Amino acid sequence: MDHLTEQQPLTAADIRGLVRPDHVHRRAYADAAVFQLEQERIFSKLWIYVAHESQLKKPGDFVRTRLANYEVVVTRHTDGNIYVLQNRCPHRGARICMADRGNAKVFSCPYHAWSFRPDGTLDSVPHRQSYPEAFSYDDPQNHMQRTGRVAAYRGFVFATLNENPAPLIEHLGPMTEVIDNLVDRAPAGEIEIADSSFTLEYRGNWKLHLENAADIFHPSFVHNSSVQPARRAPANASILDQDQTREMLLANGFGTNEWETIQLNGLPGGHAFMNNIYSKGVLVGQDTDPVAVRYRAALTAKLGPERTAKVLGVNRFNNIIYPNLIINAQYQQMRVTVPISVDRTLLHVHCFRLKGAPDEMFHRAVRFLTTLGSPMSMIFSDDMEMLERCQQGLEKDVGPWIDISRGFGMEKRGTDGSVSGPASEMPMRVQFKAWVDYLTAEAA
Amino acid sequence: MLDHETQRRIELFLFEEARLLDSGQFQEWLKLYEPQGIYWMPSQPGQTDPLNVASIVYEDHAILSIRVQRLLEARALVLTPMPRTTHLVSNVEAEETPGGEFKVGAAFICVEHQADKQKIYSGRHSYQLTRLDDSFRIKMKRVNLMNSDGIHSPMAVPL
Q1: ipTM
Q2: What chain B residue is nearest to A347 in terms of C-alpha separation?
Q3: Which CATH number do you get for residue B34?
Q4: Any CB–CB contact under 8 A between A267 and chain B?
Q5: Is A238–B62 a contact, with Cβ atoms under 8 angstroms apart?
Q6: Helix (H/G/I), strand (E/B), else coil: A244
Q7: pLDDT band at A416 (very low <50, low <70, confident <90, very high)
């Protein structure tokens, strides 16, 4: 095709034509035009997680991240507010901030030294007298461009390019419960994001990871290579981690009975979660575990026994906040999906410190992050391999439809969404229903 | 400065380790570690803390045994086809500690080939070695990957 030929924009009918109740067209994963529409209608219109407030405590604190197609700097200004700024100098267009996080009184462009305050306003330009008389420090055209809207829910900062977004709380819906639960687990009532994290890259569409996180059918197959050696390994042999790594590997080898008790939940808007899969050792907080006992005592001192039992009793796994955030409150873990192109995705994998909890609780959260989120993870590296193989297959124009029919028609539907057993692909159907809704919604 | 022979023995020990990794003899590789030996690949340059800071790998002999079995027997998806590697170790600098152990630094490059992809890893190793008869055992191997805090795709074979 002539590269100058204008491609017809995708219509709502085109999008609806990609999703059947129990099948999805491969173009949903492999068509760059679909990806572009996702950037416009999903990653520009929905609330997107951009930072945690513990990274933005003092004026000048900043985090560099991505919002839809843009690189942005999320800042805390001296007025106490959080701003999202385009990482571009209005003078000659150069990228300004080259660090992922830090503190800066001003952002100074190294090219001709325009400098900007954390709210984006212009602080100074050298040789002011050579600019036209009309040149104004107050003109937004001379500022680092503020972009979108910002809202936070209990420390989790979201942004959107949508001029007229639904309130954040409405978008999160019942998923506020997992953020509440994560924060409520801190005896001091506050959590802090850990300084260290991983950024992983896979050559595949962003949706593949979201679907994998809602799929509890694959672990028996994909993770067998770590389940089997972990089963043969002696218990409590490690001097480093109270057997946490081995227990985490073992957890993917379900007995039929425990697997059958897992329940999947799909919510309007594309959110999903499942019951927890880790049920042994230091991952549980048993009475025989001195760290867990001290932690529970600290939390009880703050919340009282009844509420403590309630908070620690929440046992949901892979809480997926559409379109790009996955939280595991009981292990203080978070994953953020960043789509780069139709076939390339970054994952930021983080953990949190529960303030007021014993230090060992944080060590365990760090251990969890290493075991599951490291590029050498004996679990997740195999997931990433499968996501890449899916993409490689989906790029080939053979048999355009792929299957999401398992458990179709067997889920229970309520006002709050759908519930199914572990074998169901209901969460993927829920995600794709939301996907169609977002992509075909009239521009606000 | 170490005497020439000890320096040479240490170098040969590192070359043996590299050869065992390249030839897929992971069980033999693990035998180079002390029963409580540790393999550590930090996630941050200059990282000193393995408890409060995440690591790419922080494993003792017991966990490494699981990793090695996975490499050898279990056909992990990320290991199909099995990657081929060339581990190069150079710039070896060793000194004896007052406790009779050896502190060794070395530069490394590892080229990994798998299916249609070739990747290059590089950085510096630092070892704590103990003497065992004519040879050595690894008490701690720290792999300071040059891009430890960068963007990573899955990594398969130990460096």
Answers
A1: 0.96
A2: B151
A3: 3.10.450.50
A4: no
A5: yes
A6: helix
A7: confident
